[in-house]
Automatic annotation (TrEMBL):
Record flagged with keyword Amino-acid biosynthesis: yes
Reaction(s) catalysed by this chain's protein: N-acetyl-L-glutamate 5-semialdehyde + phosphate + NADP(+) = N-acetyl-L-glutamyl 5-phosphate + NADPH + H(+)
Gene Ontology biological-process entries: L-arginine biosynthetic process
Organism lineage string: Eukaryota, Viridiplantae, Streptophyta, Embryophyta, Tracheophyta
Pathway noted in the entry: Amino-acid biosynthesis; L-arginine biosynthesis; N(2)-acetyl-L-ornithine from L-glutamate: step 3/4
Keyword match Membrane: no
Protein name from the UniProt record: Probable N-acetyl-gamma-glutamyl-phosphate reductase, chloroplastic
Annotated catalytic residues: C205
Gene Ontology MF annotations: N-acetyl-gamma-glutamyl-phosphate reductase activity; NAD binding; NADP+ binding
Domain Semialdehyde dehydrogenase NAD-binding residues, every copy: 59-197
EC number(s) on file: 1.2.1.38
Length: 401
């Protein structure tokens, strides 16, 4: 596909802000291949594209670079032609080089040394990925210069209702004014709001895997709103890199563990998104499980179809909703989505199956919790906020097996 035809595809889809001339010149600088067209770059192959020197296009600060989602953003940005990382922060690991924390970055010699967040200098920064634990993030983001575009991966700005945040997260909200301007970054659903946002609250991994298939079906009244049962499973990287007894190999291997039963903090986030789609309050039964795998997430969702609706209607609606989307794929009928098939990629694979109980359907959705469930979607959002094509730096095929 030519540069011109690809860029007009982006224009048609409303995913593109730069002028054609600028795109062509940027494409030329990159040998016309890293940025345009589909790359077959293998996941985990660490490449630094020729013009991605820090400062050349957009300068990024990465807060929480020594955590799992921070590392995943570094990996994705090594293949991004327009972002350079100028600041990286850590807490216990402040003062270290990134390769001493993550030896898989040994080839990335031009990454900055980790500093503590309080020592970070934002004068050479245009945008921030905030990969810090929830609860610490509001204070830190409140202190950042207002000219910065921010994508926050924590849960601190996801719930519009401050009292709901305080109830589910057990602490006062420390930046209620910023909450008002935060845009919820489930990209495929809120793309136009993301485009003009200064602060994006990146969705949780479970809510991403659940809302992507359910929102189109709820919006079109194809499923009952009062009878949604969600069973989700996550790889252990979803819990972060911090040491916890419950994440020890011995506690996890050869077993499955339900947790947060009846009270997981993603419930209000899921219900907020589904209620918005329904224009009325939607409640769900949701149980997450920890699986003995490092990354990957599956949500199996049991729904009651509305009166007169068939499985064909559900399939057709998902097809129509996502046929022009790069990162959400409805599989062919009968094909079961597997976490293996999206590993290391920004894809969400979905399918819908008729239950043997008349009138019910089973939806299966898979993502990589660290990519579409966190860092990949965060980059997708920042690309849009900065006017770069949405899939830049995200064109990784899944790593299989
Ligand atoms: N893991 C996942 O799949 C997903 C995670 N998220 C969210 O993204 C955020 C980051 O998650 P993840 O990368 O997994 O977490 P990690 O625990 O792996 O990393 C946390 C990072 O924050 C730093 N940090 C910890 N405490 C503080 C503090 N008080 N002040 C400043 N920095 C601090 C850590 O530094 P150091 O290591 O040096 O101590 C580390 O760099 C969390 O809010 C998480 O809930 C969202 C979706 C999915
Ligand atoms: C396996 C595991 O522990 N997963 C995390 C969710 C990861 C995520 O999406 O977290 P945030 O909402 O904080 O961004 C959990 O259940 O709390």
């Amino acid at each position: 596909m030519s540069t011109a035809s690809l860029s007009s595809t982006f224009l048609d889809r409303g995913c593109f802000l730069k002028s054609e001339e600028r795109l062509s010149s940027l494409a030329k600088q990159n040998g016309n291949k890293k940025y345009f067209g589909r790359s077959n770059t293998l996941p985990f192959k660490s490449l630094r594209v020729s013009n991605s020197k820090p400062g050349q296009e957009a300068r990024v600060a990465l807060l929480g670079a020594s955590g799992y989602t921070g590392a995943e953003i570094i990996r994705l940005l090594t293949n991004h032609p327009f972002f350079g990382i100028t600041v990286m922060t850590a807490d216990r690991n402040a003062g270290k080089s990134i390769e001493s924390v993550f030896p898989h970055f040994v080839t990335q010699k031009d990454l900055p040394t980790l500093v503590s967040t309080s020592d970070a200098n934002f004068s050479d920064v245009d945008a921030v990925f905030c990969c810090l634990p929830h609860g610490t993030t509001q204070e830190i983001i409140k202190g950042l210069p207002r000219r910065l575009k921010i994508v926050d991966l924590s849960a601190d700005f996801r719930l519009r209702d401050i009292s709901e945040y305080e109830e589910w997260y057990g602490q006062p909200h420390r930046a209620p004014n910023l909450q008002e301007e935060a845009v919820y970054g489930l990209t495929e659903i809120y793309r136009e709001k993301v485009r003009y946002a200064r602060l994006v609250a990146n969705p949780g991994c479970y809510p991403t895997s659940i809302q992507l298939p359910l929102i189109p079906l709820i919006k079109t009244n194809l499923i009952e709103h009062g009878n949604i049962i969600i069973d989700s499973k996550s790889g252990v990287s979803g819990a972060g890199r911090g040491a916890k007894v419950s994440n020890l190999y011995t506690e996890l291997t050869e077993g499955i563990m339900s947790y947060g039963v009846t009270k997981h903090r993603h419930v209000p986030e899921i219900e907020q998104g589904l209620s918005d789609a329904a224009c009325s309050k939607v409640t769900v039964s949701f149980t997450p499980h920890l699986m003995p795998m490092s990354r990957g997430m599956q949500s199996t969702i049991y729904v009651q179809m509305a009166s007169g609706v068939t499985i064909e209607d559900l399939y057709h609606q998902l097809k129509v909703s996502y046929e022009n989307e790069e990162f959400v794929k409805l599989l062919d009928k009968g094909i079961v989505p597997r976490t293996h098939d999206v590993r290391g990629s920004n894809y969400c694979y979905v399918n819908v199956f008729p239950d043997r109980i008349r009138g019910r359907a089973i939806i299966i959705s898979v993502i990589d919790n660290l990519v579409k469930g966190a860092s990949g979607q965060a980059l997708q959002n920042l690309n849009i906020m900065m006017g770069f094509p949405e899939r830049t730096g995200l064109e990784y095929l899944p790593l299989f097996p």
